[in-house]
From TrEMBL:
It comes from Enterococcus malodoratus ATCC 43197. It comes from the Bacteria. The keyword Lyase does not apply. GO terms for molecular function: proton-transporting ATP synthase activity, rotational mechanism. Signal peptide: none annotated. Keywords: ATP synthesis, Cell membrane, CF(1), Hydrogen ion transport, Ion transport, Membrane, Transport. HAMAP family: ATP_synth_delta_bact. It is a peripheral membrane protein. This is ATP synthase subunit delta. The keyword Ribonucleoprotein does not apply. Belongs to the ATPase delta chain family. Pfam families: OSCP.
Length: 181
């Protein structure tokens, strides 16, 4: 049975996270994975190249040696296992799963904040602090989204929860209440 990329990513990411915790190296491994994520963004076809059946084994190995040259220990071994099992194109999913577990361990919430106008950095940081407090996390990292259709206020989505304080939502609620009378 062939597994989808998300399932593969979850399994490998979980295994790497558990190994990193066991070796008390979660922070170091996470930093190296961030570097790998950047490399994957700079060379988006890297995973496809390393799994391409048209390339000779020696060619792939040369590319892999260049790729893993800057890493050592757990991360290098992880990359070699991923390469050996022909899963290099699933690396971003593996990194995402590791990061999800790492953030959960460090009580960091990720989410979005939607506003009608762009937020200043100061307001964004203020909102992140409030969201972290409301959801019981030590820190929140919110990606700003501008959507003029909400008219005003904010919509925060984090930790699989939504706080809708938008003016559009409030007006729709008022309309619904008035139409019932």
């Amino acid at each position: 049975m062939k597994l989808d990329k998300y399932t593969v990513g979850k399994r490998y990411g979980k295994a790497l996270f558990e190994l990193a915790i066991e070796n008390e190296a979660a922070d170091a491994v996470y930093q190296e994975l961030l570097t790998i994520r950047e490399i994957c963004k700079e060379i988006p076809d890297l995973g496809n190249i390393l799994t391409d059946v048209r390339l000779e084994g020696a060619e792939k190995k040369a590319i892999m040696d260049a790729f893993t040259g800057g890493f050592d220990g757990i991360v290098k071994n992880f990359l070699l296992v991923v390469f050996e099992y022909n899963r290099s194109d699933d690396l971003p999913f593996m990194i995402d799963e590791f990061e999800r577990r790492y953030d959960e361990m460090n009580k960091v919430a990720h989410g979005t904040v939607t506003t009608a106008v762009p937020l200043s950095e100061e307001k964004k940081h203020e909102l992140e602090a409030k969201v972290a407090d409301v959801f019981g996390y030590q820190k929140a990292s919110l990606t700003p989204i501008v959507d003029e259709s909400i008219l005003g206020g904010v919509i925060v989505e984090a930790d699989h929860q939504v706080i809708d304080g938008s003016l559009a939502s409030q007006l729709n609620g008022l309309r619904a209440a008035l139409s019932k009378k």
